[in-house]
Amino acid sequence: MSFDNAYEAITEENDSRWAFGTGFEDPLSGVDTTVPSGVEGADLAAYCLMLGDDALIFSHRLQEWCTNAPELEDEVAIANIGLDLLGQARLLLARAGKAEGGDRGEDHYAFFRAEHEFRNVRLAELPRGDFGELIARLLVFSTWRLALFQRLTESRDPVLAAIAAKGVKELTYHRDYAAQWAVRLGDGTEYSRERITEGLASVWPYTDELFTPHPVELRLGEAGVAVDPSAARAEFDDVLGQVLRAATLDTPEAPAIPGVAGRAGRAGVHTEGMGYLLAELQSVARAHPEATW
C-alpha cells in the first residue's frame, strides 16, 4: 500500500472515540499493514508501542484537567488535545498489533499490560501539577513529538508515515496552544511568571530522555522506518528558545533525572505515579475483561 492510500484510509470519517468495551472497529481496518521488507515485525511493533504509549498516557493525564482548567475555553482545548492524542494512540497500538502478527489489539495494549511493559517516556506520566506545569509540559512534549512526526512522514512504512502525517496537523495546534499560553504567563503578572517558571523547572529534568535513542529506534532508523530522536534536538532547542525569548523566560538549568541503571521509560522503568495512573486507566477492563456495551 502506498502512503497516499494509507493516509486516505486512516483519515476517512472514523469515530476516534474509544473506551473499553464499546466495540469500536479496528482503526486500521481495510489498511494494508504488511511489514516493510527487511524490517523485523517485533521491532516495528515495539517502536509503535513507544509512540502509542506516549500518546495514551499523556492523554490520560490531560483528561484529569476536565473541570480543572481556568476557563471554559481551555477546558475544551485541553480535552480536544487529549482526544487527538488518544486517536494517535489507537492507530499506533493497532499498528503494533498488526506488526507483531498476533491477535493482540489496542484494548490489550492499553488495558492488559503491566507497568513494566509500557514504553512511554516518563514526562508523559508525571502527576498533574498546576496550570503552569501543564503548559510547560505540553510545550515540551508537543514540540518534541511534532519534530519526530514531521520526520516520520518520510518513513518507509506507509502506515506509520500516514499516521505521522495526520498527527503533524494535530501536534502543530498543540504546540501553538502551549506556546501562546507560555508567552502569556511568562510576560504577564509576577504570579503567572512564577507559575510557568516553576512548571518549566519541574519538567526540564525529563527532557534529555526524549532525545536518548533506544536500540530499536536506531535499528529502524537505519532501515528508513523510524526516527533517531537525537536528530530532532536542534529543532527542539530552536523552537523552545524562540518561545522562551518571547515569554521573557530563561532556559531552565536543571540536571537530568536518571533512570535505574541507565534504563528509563523506553525500557519500562517508570516513576511512582505510573502505577497509580494505570490502576485508574485499567480498572474497568480488568474488573470486567469480557464486557461489551
From TrEMBL:
Coiled-coil stretches noted in the UniProt entry, renumbered to this chain: none
Annotated GO CC locations: cytosol
Matching Pfam families: PaaA_PaaC (PF05138)
Sequence intervals crossing the membrane: none
One Gene Ontology term from the biological process aspect of the record: phenylacetate catabolic process
Family matches, as NCBIfam families: PA_CoA_Oxy3
Name of the protein in its database record: Phenylacetate-CoA oxygenase subunit PaaI
